[in-house]
Write a structure and sequence with these properties.
heterotetramer, A mainly alpha, B alpha/beta, C alpha/beta, D mainly alpha, A: mainly alpha, two-stranded antiparallel ribbon, two-stranded antiparallel sheet, 16 helices, disordered C terminus, C: alpha/beta, 10 helices, disordered N terminus, binds adenosine-5'-triphosphate, binds magnesium ion, Putative ABC transporter ATP-binding protein (chain B), ATP hydrolysis activity (chain B), membrane (chain B), cell membrane (chain B), transport (chain B)
């Protein structure tokens, strides 16, 4: 029972995924087709990697909207290195290192200099995109040498390597948050940075690591991009950060920090993927798709609050006007 | 004192007001009257419930029970604006100004004079100037509050509380940040207001101030009303006794074990404007209390030792080794830890389970290569839980615990790290008497048996006397007295704490 | 050049017909009921809507199951998702305008592996990722057409500047390069000169306007702003009109007649160019249908017979030149209803 | 630390003397001056490097280019002052422009009411944002990210891939886009008017001051009896109205309107606001700063075209400008906060 309560958001997502599956398969007879499911899943790997990267950052109570630009730097750099015939491993490591470096830049500005993360990453969003264009030049590049494409294009048996990468990263993120001191510090820092500092945790260090991880995973997403699309351009993944944030928030990660789990993010990806795939398979016009995703995002946060407000109205008003964040407490204690 | 309106209802009547914050009963059935034209001092220890009462009277938060009436009419203020409209205003304990707005705007926010849809700036400024002049204060009302000195800001708050039909003015520790000359200025204003018939509630910890000002004194203790008496009928000793009187007498357990080596030595510690030339030592097995009024700078000293402050001068030695405190992490690794006074904001992470809270600082030493050893973690937490008899299971969220148990969790997380020097800031503030005694036993056990050196910051005189070996009394950022507890009394400590320290003062 | 194309197709009709029909004995020329999906770069742009109408017309004429699919976000990933999800629906053919020709290539290849014919129109994908590309205008002809339009506006020539959608739009880049080449080398355009640096407006009207104004400021003797983007060209002209500089500076290039009708009617512009997107969509859809029916196999030299829309010969690399530029001027603008 | 002798008259020393004691206020002034200095530096740099830059004509052109961004930034300022943000501004602009001009194109009787309809639409869309953020307590970034999609989705749905062409616009709106008043484009005057109006509301009305108050110190606002929900709702509604006006003007300027109009502009608007010194923490900054921020962005764009610099560098320079701006904000904020929250514990006798 306690487990059920702890994972209530995830359970809700699972139920929704079930409904979405039923809905999608009724919407389109092609939905429940193995190849289709696999290739649709493949499509979400890139967004998933960025979402798992964004997860610790949001957990720390910060945000990073520059990740798609980091991806672009990663993809064009990887393509460039592949063009130059650099050994695959070296190329990959170089891209991951550059991703880490860009994450470090964000992390330093946010955690060390104490600047607001939204504004900082709004700035680096443009700056990193500029760097990507500078590396790529006007034209994109096409990569056809298979050895550079394994992560995005390869398959192990019937399963695409990219999906394995995503699942490994997801499991890694889950394990990192659940079983390592970094994970514990992450929740602590996001819940109460002051108390964390008082407990001898390096709040700055934790946040910086979060940004670096986000950068590395975006770099990895860039490598996978090249593998999946066998090409790279400076404008890669432009505009995809909205989807990534939606996935993380829908996954039950509080945008204020301190709570959320990797499983939730994975489930949210599956849910969004199921709905979008269903709609695309049914050739639902693109506009409705945009609407549905936006509504889902708001509903995921607004509806619980609305229920709480309605419940609160029914009860005799026991008001906590203290203006503190303990506004959420009554609901929690009410549930127990 | 002439009270022409004696026959009428009192200006303000507080009747059976109660308020709880979860498990904490901040106020229990408090009743007393305040007459027009009197200065009514409201005194009590930290956490007695004074500020909570102010909040209820002025409509910041509703009480759970009870009635507040003004001139015989029961009030139901929903917001502080309603209260102001009824002539009740307050200067709250924590500064509440808008740094980015001008002085005039800060004074008039919520009741701007208008001309059409616009604020009548001329009228606003004139009014603000008048109100400031009423408190004997002249500053440029166009300047931004961010540019004011602390004292200036304080006067702005007071001016804000004034209005033409002011009936009740409440001042919650208004002088804690003022110099004597500034405070003197304020006394004059208050006396003048009293003479024009306003009822004043004056909350303060400063004896001489209360003596000089108050016509009537009401004492609160643990959220309960203890006594209301004309000032003249209540001696200082009696007032303090009423403030600290406890139902359970804390026992002073004499120390039998000898003291060990010096484990913490502080010399010449200074932070400009906050504390100055602090010297003391703590030995293994010793409990040193640091007493003083709120705002004396005790917490700041402890925080500086824990590496939380920048720009600290002086020397700190731990077990004979000189260290420069830079960060909590560094100090905790060196075996010096600090239990913050603001438990919920700084001491615990209430949204995490007990086990996570307790293990948080020890994670690194517990696990290997960054992996958390969950079994070890649970063992550690379980050990602490039973050692400190924390209620609940280690998997429970800390938010489900009472204040006392939260405090034990906060202590436990440091004990799990086996420190050698403990700095405890108000370790029993706001927790019930039973738990308080338990915490005292824990402290004795840690010092006597486990040979830790403990610095205990406390505003509870009985606690200081019962637990400590030595008392350092602070006033305004300086140590004014260093006493053996055996020779100290509540009165001697309070007397030292309330005296105005000068650099020359040495006990 | 218009004639060239038609001559070429006339020549090859005879040769091409035989192999076309013999190659697909099982379906022998019927595309009745074939399922054809048309995917524009993104939905919501009038140009693609006009092309869609042509596709729908072809669907009606040939009895096809024609569907229009796509996302309203101008992002490559969105188009990839659209295409990926088209495959399991097993359409017989896809008619695609590529937003990022390299990035969608793997998806198109998957489609072809699944037996789906792929025809690109408007913007090509990788050569080996599609069967046919129905090219509205060869890059050279497009460049000449736009330069001609420029000279119609500014008969004395003068300085021109270019606005493209993005550095990653290959057709725009090619157009600009050819235009520069012709201005440098072709005596017909020797009265023109150009600003070397190309500006990018990302098919965004507001940005196109800002760039147009900045170009005018940067180059006092600027005469013509040329853009291959059907968003940028009219937007730039609107900016010129707004700035009260009609008659001093002109914007031209490709634009839908509906979006430039007012400029041409009120004389602020003498000419814009385009082709008939509806007919392009029609031809592309017909080509797709004929690939499906086996009437053609995308081999060089085969002929696509699009009825009233004309006949077209498959060129090298499966490229089919539609090559019917339209020049909108005061004389003919009333004739176009798209 | 200094102690002010309370009996002295208001400080009357020299300019600098006076600021010497009020570092927080000084910091805020410097912050605003900083934007102007930054703009000046840009102007100087471009003047030296691009000979065509410093001409009256080019100045006019820059102002015209920044007009719509200025208006949108003015609306965003309302929201940012409360410590929130509005990512849906581009969608509100696009939706309003499309719907209004489509309606008026089809029913010419509606043409005189174009502005009124736009204001209504903007108010409703802004109100929805406000309800989500205030009453439903959805963090503003999430709420407006959602409405960004929803509003954009709605307009594409409504437009059904059609376009409104310039011929459908009311003639007076088209004339407005071309009009020149006193040597400057009408848009510049309108932008100045909107900025001045928003500035007036912010400075001179009780509502405007409560926006600052809430952003400056939310807890104090509660103690002063201000309703944060109502203030936030008001800010978003106002921002919606202003965004709608920006959208209307953008539509009239562009002429051919499709459902994508204004997409992506939210990042430009935020950039203008941040560069203009409106603190992302809320409570400080002015709508005039935001307007200058918009001019800064337009100047960068203009100068780089004049210099024939590649697009990529624009992205880099703009990004760096944003980071630099918030860096300065952080320093200012520290100064402001330290001035009011420091409690003096020791006596320091003069
Ligand atoms: N918002 C709150 N939530 C939970 N507990 C609170 C809250 N406000 C006050 N308390 C608790 O209520 C009790 C009374 O606090 P209050 O601030 O009224 O005391 P006080 O007499 O003003 O003390 P001081 O002299 O330190 O100002 C304390 O135990 C305090 O911890
Ligand atoms: N620099 C500062 N900025 C903000 N608040 C401060 C600062 N210094 C002190 N305070 C506040 O002033 C109050 C009293 O100061 P301090 O904690 O040093 O006194 P203390 O002697 O430790 O009193 P106690 O611990 O009994 O409350 C505290 O509530 C503290 O938060
Ligand atoms: Mg108090
Ligand atoms: Mg303290």
């Amino acid at each position: 029972m306690r487990l059920a309560r702890r994972y209530s958001w995830e359970l809700l997502l699972v139920v929704l995924i079930g409904l979405a599956f039923v809905w999608s398969s009724r919407l389109s007879p092609y939905f429940l087709n193995r190849d289709n499911l696999v290739s649709s899943a493949e499509f979400y790997v890139i967004f998933g990697l960025m979402a798992f990267g964004l997860l610790p950052v949001i957990l720390h109570g910060e945000i990073d909207i520059s990740l798609a630009s980091t991806l672009a730097v990663g993809s064009v750099l990887y393509a460039k290195l592949a063009d130059d015939g650099v050994p695959v491993i070296v190329a990959m490591l170089a891209v991951l290192a550059v991703g880490a470096l860009l994450g470090l830049v964000n992390g330093a500005l946010v955690a060390v200099a104490g600047l607001p993360s939204l504004a900082v990453t709004l700035g680096t969003l443009g700056a990193f995109r500029g760097i990507a264009f500078l590396i790529a030049g006007d034209q994109g590049s096409v990569i056809s040498e298979d050895r550079y494409l394994v992560l995005g294009d390869g398959e192990i048996g019937p399963v695409p390597v990219s999906i394995i990468v995503l699942l490994v990263v997801g499991a890694g993120a889950a394990a990192l948050l659940a079983y390592t001191s970094f994970g514990r510090y992450s929740y602590a820092v996001g819940s109460n940075p002051e108390a964390s500092r008082m407990a001898g945790i390096s709040v700055i260090g934790t946040k910086v690591i979060g940004y670096v991880l986000a950068g590395v995973l975006s770099g990895l997403a860039g490598i996978i991009w090249v593998g999946q699309y066998q090409s790279a351009r400076g404008d890669n993944a432009d505009g995809s950060i909205l989807f990534v944030i939606t996935a993380v928030v829908l996954g039950g990660v509080s945008i204020k920090g301190g709570s959320g789990r990797a499983v939730g993010v994975l489930l949210a990806l599956i849910l969004l993927g199921t709905i979008q795939t269903g709609m695309k398979l049914a050739n639902v016009p693109g506009t409705s798709q945009t609407l549905v995703v936006g509504l889902l995002l708001i509903a995921s946060i607004g509806v619980p609050k609305l229920v709480q407000i309605v419940r609160g109205l029914q009860r005799t008003p026991v008001i906590t006007q203290s203006g503190r964040s303990d506004a959420a407490e009554p609901a929690a204690s009410n549930a127990s | 004192m002439e009270r022409t309106e004696q026959d009428a209802a009192p200006r303000l009547r507080v009747d059976g007001v109660s308020k709880s914050f979860g498990a904490v009963h901040a106020l229990r059935g408090v009743s007393f009257d305040v007459q027009a034209g009197e200065i009514h001092a409201l005194v009590g220890e930290n956490g007695a419930g004074k500020s909570t009462l102010v909040g209820i009277i002025t409509g910041i938060r509703p009480g759970d029970a009870g009635v507040v009436s003004v001139d015989g009419v029961a009030t139901k203020f929903k917001t502080p604006l309603d209260a102001r409209a009824a002539g009740i205003a307050a200067m709250y304990q924590d500064p509440n100004l808008f740094p980015h707005l001008s002085v005039a705007e800060n004074i008039m926010t919520g009741q701007f004079p208008r001309r059409g849809p616009f604020i009548d700036h001329a009228a606003m400024k004139t009014r603000a100037r008048e109100l400031l002049a009423d408190v004997g204060f002249e500053i440029d009302v166009d300047q931004m509050v961010a540019g004011l000195t602390v004292a200036e800001a304080q006067f702005v708050e007071i001016a804000r509380a004034l209005s033409s039909d002011l009936r009740v003015l409440i001042l919650d520790e208004p002088t804690s940040a003022l110099t004597p000359s500034e405070a003197e200025k304020l006394y004059e204003v208050v006396r003048r207001l009293r003479d024009t018939g306003t009822a004043i509630i004056w909350i303060s910890h400063r004896m001489e101030e209360i003596r000089a000002l108050a016509d009537t004194i009401t004492v609160l203790r643990d959220g309960q009303h203890v006594i209301t008496s004309p000032s003249a009928d209540l001696s200082d000793d009696e007032m303090i006794r009423q403030m600290v009187g406890r139902s359970v007498v804390l026992e002073n357990v004499a120390r039998t074990e000898p003291l060990g080596d010096v484990c913490l030595k502080v010399s010449g510690l200074s932070l400009p404007g906050v504390f100055d030339e602090i010297d003391f030592e703590i030995r293994e097995g010793e409990i040193v209390a640091m007493a003083g009024l709120v705002g004396a700078g005790r917490s700041e000293i402890a925080q500086a030792l824990f590496g939380l402050s920048k720009g600290v001068e002086g020397e700190v030695e731990i077990h004979g080794e000189t260290v420069a405190p830079r960060s909590p992490r560094q100090m905790a690794d060196l075996g010096l830890v600090y239990l913050p006074e603001n438990r919920d904001a700084e001491g615990i992470i209430s949204t995490m389970p007990i086990v996570d809270n307790i293990a948080l600082p020890s994670l690194k030493s517990l696990g290997r290569g960054g992996i958390v050893d969950s079994a070890g973690e649970r063992r550690l937490a379980e050990d602490q839980r039973s050692a400190l008899s924390i209620k609940g299971e280690i998997g429970d969220l800390v938010s489900s615990l009472s204040g006392g148990n939260r405090q034990k969790v906060a202590i436990a997380r440091w004990l799990a790290k086996q420190p050698t020097v403990l700095l405890l800031d108000e370790p029993t503030h706001g927790i019930d008497v039973g738990t308080k005694a338990q915490v005292h036993d824990i402290m004795r056990e840690l010092a006597r048996k486990q040979r830790m050196g403990i610095l205990m910051i406390s505003s509870d005189m009985l606690e200081v006397l019962a637990v400590s070996d030595r008392v350092l009394v602070l006033s305004r950022g300086r140590i004014v007295v260093d006493l053996e507890t055996a020779t100290a009394t509540q009165e001697s400590i309070l007397a030292a704490a309330t005296q105005r320290a000068t650099k020359a003062t040495v006990a | 050049s218009d004639d060239d194309a038609e001559e070429a197709s006339d020549d090859s009709v005879a040769e091409a017909e035989a192999p076309a029909s013999s190659d697909a004995p099982e379906e022998a020329g019927s595309s009745e009921g074939a399922k054809i999906f048309m995917a524009p770069k993104f939905t919501g742009l009038a140009y693609f809507e006009v092309a869609r109408e042509g596709g729908e017309q072809a669907g009606e004429d040939l009895g096809l199951d024609f569907q229009y699919i796509g996302s309203d976000k101008p992002e490559a990933t969105e188009q990839i998702a659209t295409l990926t999800n088209a495959i399991p629906q097993s359409p017989d053919a896809l008619v695609v305008s590529a937003i990022d020709g390299d990035a969608i290539a793997p998806a198109l290849n998957d489609a072809r592996d699944a037996g789906i014919k792929v025809v690109t129109y408007d913007a090509d994908a990788n050569v080996d990722a599609r069967d046919l590309f129905i090219n509205q205008l060869s890059y050279e002809l497009a460049a000449r057409t736009m330069l001609d339009a420029a000279l119609l506006n500014s008969p004395d020539g003068g300085l021109v500047a270019f606005i493209s959608a993005s550095p990653t739009a290959p057709n725009h880049t090619a157009h600009v390069n050819f235009m520069k080449e012709f201005i440098d080398g072709d005596p017909a355009y020797s009265s023109l000169s150009y600003v070397d640096e190309v500006q990018f407006a990302g098919d965004d009207a507001a940005k196109s306007q800002e760039i147009a104004l900045n170009l005018i400021q940067a180059n006092p003797d600027l005469k013509v702003i040329i853009s291959s983007s059907a968003v940028s060209a009219p937007a730039a002209q609107q900016a010129i009109v707004n700035a009260g500089m009609s008659g001093e500076v002109w914007a031209t290039g490709f634009a839908l007649p509906s979006s430039v009708r007012d400029f041409i009617n009120d004389g602020s512009s003498a000419a814009f160019a385009l082709w008939d997107p509806a007919e392009l969509g029609y031809v592309a859809t017909v080509a797709a249908a004929q690939l499906v029916s086996g009437e053609i196999t995308a081999e060089e030299g085969q002929v696509i017979d699009a009825g009233e829309a004309g006949t077209y010969t498959v060129g090298a690399d499966g490229e089919v030149l539609y090559d019917k530029p339209l020049m909108f001027t005061a004389d003919n603008i009333a004739d176009f209803d798209f | 630390m200094t102690t002010t002798d309370l009996s002295t008259a208001p400080p009357t020393g020299s300019f600098l003397d006076r600021f010497g004691t009020t570092s927080g206020a000084l910091a805020l002034k410097v912050r605003f001056l900083g934007v102007l200095v930054f703009l000046l530096l840009l102007v100087v740099t471009f003047t030296i490097t691009a000979p065509r830059f410093l001409t009256l004509d080019n100045g006019r052109s820059i102002l015209f280019s920044s007009a719509i961004l200025m208006i949108a930034a003015a609306g965003q300022t309302l929201v940012v002052l409360t410590g929130n943000l509005d990512l849906s501004v581009g969608s509100i602009m696009g939706l309003t422009a499309y719907v209004v001009f489509d309606l008026s194109g089809e029913t010419t009787a509606l043409q005189p009411f174009v502005i009124l309809i736009a204001v209504l639409i903007g108010a409703v869309l802004g109100f929805i944002n406000g309800v989500l953020v205030s009453f439903l307590e959805i963090p503003s970034i999430v709420a407006t990210l959602g409405t960004l999609s929803i509003y954009r989705g709605s307009v594409s749905f409504y437009a059904d891939a059609k376009e409104v062409t310039s011929g459908q616009l009311p003639q007076y709106m088209r004339d407005l886009a071309m009009a020149n008043w006193f040597g400057l484009s009408a848009y510049v005057w309108l932008a100045a008017g909107v900025v001045a109006l928003v500035g007036l509301v912010l400075r001179k009305t009780p509502g405007g001051r409560s926006l600052y108050a809430l952003g400056s110190n939310p807890k104090a606002a509660e103690y002063f009896g201000l309703s944060s929900n109502r203030i936030i709702l008001g800010a978003y509604t106002g921002a919606g109205v202003v965004a709608a006006i920006a959208g209307l003007l953008l539509g009239a300027r562009v002429g051919n309107i499709n459902s994508l109009l204004g997409s992506g502009i939210e990042l430009q608007v935020l950039a203008a606001v941040v560069i203009g010194g409106v603190s992302i923490w809320g409570g400080s900054g002015s709508v005039f700063g935001a307007a200058v921020g918009a001019i800064v962005l337009a100047t960068i764009n203009n100068g780089l075209v004049l210099l024939q610099v590649q697009e990529y560098y624009r992205l880099l320079i703009q990004g760096a400008a944003i980071v630099a701006a918030v860096g300065v904000d952080a320093i200012v904020r520290k100064k402001v906060l330290s001035a009011t929250t420091r409690r003096r514990i020791m006596e320091v006798d003069a």
